[in-house]
Structures are given as C-alpha cells and as structure tokens.
Amino acid sequence: MSTREFRFAEVFSYESLVHAMAGAVGSVTAMTVFFPLDTARLRLQVDEKRKARSTPAILSEIVKEEGLLAPYRGWLPVICSLCCSNFVYFYCFHSLRASWLRGHKSTPSRDLLMGTAAGVVNVLMTTPLWVVNTRLKLQGAKFRNADIRPTNYSGIMDAFVQIIEDEGVGALWNGTFPSLLLVLNPAVQFMIYEGLKRQMRSLVHRELLSLEVFLIGAIAKAVATTVTYPLQTVQSILRFGQHAQHTDGSPLLNSLRSVMHLLINRVRKNGMLGLFKGLEAKLLQTVLTAALMFLLYEKIASSTFRVMGVKRPASSH
C-alpha cells in the first residue's frame, strides 16, 4: 500500500466514523438535557438591557413572560447544528490524530494543534447553521432592548432564504472571525481532557470510572469556557445580526473592527464584568453538557468497538 493510500485509509476510517457518531449522539443528548441553561445564557449575552441575575431567576422570567416551552425555543435547529458540528469536529480530530501520530504517544501540544485544525474546518463548514439557529432561538423573545428588530422565520430553510435575500450570502458567515478565534475553546478543552485522561490512567492503571470521565470533562470545559467567554459574547451578537458592521475596508479588517468595537462598548457600559455577563448560565450549561457529552461519547465509542469486535485504537486513549 502506497503512502497516499495509507493516509487515505486513515482519514476515511471506521474508527474515525465511530468517534464522530459517538461524539454527535453524546452532544445532542447532553444539550437536550441542559438546553434551558443555554437559553438563559443567550438572552443575557444579546439583550444588553436585561439585568444580570441568577440563572433560575432568568428562566423564571422567560417562562412567566413567554410560556412554559419558551426555554426550549429553537431546540431543533440548535440540535441539527450541534449534531453536524460535533460530527465534523470529532471526525477531523480523530482522523488527524490517526494520520499524524501513527503509533506515537500524543502530547498536550499535539492535541492542541489537532484540536485547532479540526476547529477551523468545523467553523468554516457549520457557521451558517449556527447563524440560523441563533436567529430562530431568539425569534419571539421579549427583549428589554427596544432597538432589537423582530424577525419572522417559519423554519430553518426559510431563515436561510430570508437571510440571503435581505442581507446577502455573506451574512450566513456572520461571526466567523470570532468563531475562528474561538477554535481555541474546543482545542484547549480537548488538550486538557486528553491530558488529564492520560494522567489518570497512568495513576490508576485501569479504565476510568464514569464519574472520573464526567469530572475530567467538566474541568476541561470550565477552563476553556472561562478563558474564551468574552469572544463568545461577541460571536452571539454578530450571529444575531442586529449589530451594524463596518463595510469600508477588507472583510478581515471589518471583522476585527466589529469585534474590538463590541468588546470596548461592553466594557464602557458595564465595566470589565460586562464581558462576563451570563457566564454563570454558560458555565452551568456548557460544563454539565460537556461532561455528560464526554461520558456518553466514551461509553458509546467503547461499546461500539466492543460489539463490532474491533480493538479500540491506542491513539484514542
């Protein structure tokens, strides 16, 4: 087998497909369980005039004003986007790992590099889905900020059509620049997760318990989320499409100006803590979701390899 054929087989492998399917199913299940927490986080990020309160208080307000099912508004487009996004990310990460490591031990720096590369591919492929689901999730919400314009999308496809007709194809990639910067979030998360997993296995010399995997996933996501949260806020605002963006320069320069303007404006209005408005809800949602996702991912992948009689590759450990 030639080197080119060998690499092709590594990229399009059964093992990578199992990891991608396990990651997608795990993330969809976990997000469904903790979805209301994400609703609270998004409202606090986008609606500047909504007071920062505890997550239960925000959810209580939403239910009182908009109905019992309001915390699950936009669930379907979010789940579709998340399923596609995690499938792409897990597939790319494990394909790159199989191709680059080739039996060698992984290191935190290699995990970070592979996570970043997988993240870039994921952002470029799935940003239009996230733009649409952000709009649908906020449609019909009762905002404190009167400047926010209402939207009227009947579904995912109608949202795509209206955005392209009203704002141009480029609007589907709103927030791509901060999203590319935010590839560090899953990259840091995977680096910490894989590093802690290796350390734990070397200490206990056995398969990790479900609680241990859950805690490792929670720690990894908590660190990654806190470090990158201000950029996540900017990303949400740009995806919502209500911010007037610069158009008098190159796309890259305009994106950089928009990011800096939003960050500076947030600090001027609310101080440095304004950059972290909604962090409590985000940490609750993302840490619990990531921890449950990693637990389900490990169980699904291990069970699939076992049922199919395939030995789990050493690189995935």
From TrEMBL:
It is found in: Membrane. The keyword Membrane applies. This is Peroxisomal membrane protein PMP34-like. It is a multi-pass membrane protein. The chain crosses the membrane at residues 12-35, 74-92, 112-132, 208-231. Keywords: Membrane, Repeat, Transmembrane, Transmembrane helix, Transport. It comes from Salvelinus namaycush (Lake trout). GO terms for molecular function: ADP transmembrane transporter activity; AMP transmembrane transporter activity; ATP transmembrane transporter activity; coenzyme A transmembrane transporter activity; FAD transmembrane transporter activity; FMN transmembrane transporter activity; NAD transmembrane transporter activity. Gene3D superfamilies: Mitochondrial carrier domain. The gene is LOC120034391. Its main location: membrane. GO terms for cellular component: peroxisomal membrane. InterPro entries: MCP, MCP_dom_sf, MCP_transmembrane, Mito/Peroxisomal_Carrier. Solcar repeats lie at residues 14-99, 106-199, 208-303. Belongs to the mitochondrial carrier (TC 2.A.29) family. It comes from the Eukaryota.
